[in-house]
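Here is a typical protein record:
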Amino acid sequence: MIVRQFLRWVQTAPAGDRAEATSALARAYLYSDLSNDDRLAAEAAMMVLLDDPSPLVRRALAEALQSADVAPHGVIIALASDQRDIAELVVRRSPVFSDAELVDLVGGGAEWMQAAIAARDPLSRAVAGAIAEVGSAHACLVLLENPYVDITAWTLARVAERHGHLSAIREALFARGDLPTETRQALVAKLSSSLSRFVADRAWMPASRAEEIAREACDRATVALAAGRDADETAALVRHLVASGQLTGMLLLRVLLSGNMHFLIEAFTELSGLSGERVARILSDRSCASFRALYLKAGLPDAAFKAFRVALQAMHETGFAGDAIGASVLKRRMIERVLTQYEGMADGEVDFLFAMLRRLAAEAARDEARYYTADLIAAA
């Protein structure tokens, strides 16, 4: 009876009064001890109010029901299709939505709809994955900044793949402690590529030189990322580098000259198809008797073999890195020893290798100087 009177009254009442009455009706539905008949009548009245021409009324309904887990499902679904300021209230907060419904809204929604869903507390991994797969860059940024999301490594990787060229996305990803090493490296590669194109587009240097500098910077960062990683992280990083075509002979030579034995074993295992145990035995053999067969099976360039062999022999004499710093900084004496094997060689592909080794030697000298001066400052 009361609901029927309410419905007759709202037909002629001012919009502001209707909004206040709608809010009272919704609160009564949620918090009052209504009979089953009254509850059904109140729910029917709210469904009718969804057609009210005034957004004040519909917003009042959304505000009252937005956080209630007993809100009528049909009313919430309808409000999610209303104008933006009304729909955002329920899409962002209502616990009534199922994951399937939220995924559907992400797939067919506008950017603001995706961002509102990305800000939900809590947010399941299924919905987070949908946002990573089809969401806009803004929605993905909101997702990364949401502390209540159940986010997976795949979701982070997909966001990096789709939007990693944007600085805001990169910064948000780099700031995460749970970012997988291979995803971090992929972002470094994107950044290097972006900087290379930027420099080349402005004609600050030839495109080939810009690409070369960017590639070497990316390789340097990759070696630093690989240092100190556990076996699983190293294996995942190697697989990523192989899949993306970044595990080149030059990168592997840099790894060897940095002394990261764990990465080297994993890389040769992945490239050659041999077992890790067998690769470890070959690399640990001081005579390097079987190293050439392993090297060729891995598909590495024949012209660089001598540099690898000399570096491996030198590493056996000086010892492999025992910490993260040692595995990420090039060893100057080892590089200088490798360089002596190439003095006076003929022109050709080897000359490129010789030039690269000279750059690595200069880089190692700078690193050595930095650590030396840092120690002096610390001692002072």
About this structure: The chain has three domains: 1-96, 98-167, 237-379. The two ends are 87 Å apart (CA to CA). The mean pLDDT is 87.
